[in-house]
Amino acid sequence: MAATETLAELGISLPPVAAPVAAYTPALRVGNQVWTSGQLPFVDGQLPATGKVGADISAAKAEEFARIAALNALAAIDAVAGLDAVTRVLKVVVFVASAEDFVDQPLVANGASNLMTDVFGEAGTHARSAVGVAVLPKDSPVEVEVIVEVAGDGATEPASVR
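Above: the chain sequence. Below: its structure as tokens.
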């Protein structure tokens, strides 16, 4: 089943590509890969919460935010290559703004990872890093990067913000 059909079946709509908060493009296609910039969990241009996971934000809530950030990454991928062109999710990196004693970054990262397997099935199984950091842009609790393989050998092109 195509990724767009799976999203529809799951009742998920792709959001518009999130506007960059600095000097970068949301995603870039190089040959048969698309690399996203770090995506924050923006919803309608706003962060749903700010602060440190394990202090201000629960791990369960942060896992939801990782899923939202990953959905924003899918929107950026769709803009440069079309989501149905994805043949494999290669790597997911999840940064978690962590309280000093918070050690469950992998559980937070599951929000992004589970979205990939929900949408792409076996092709969504990927390598992953879950990294605790002191602070993220805009005081976001999470940031997600995704690298995918896509069909064809497309030209290098940046994502455009819708």
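The beta strands are 27-36, 86-97, 127-133, 142-158.
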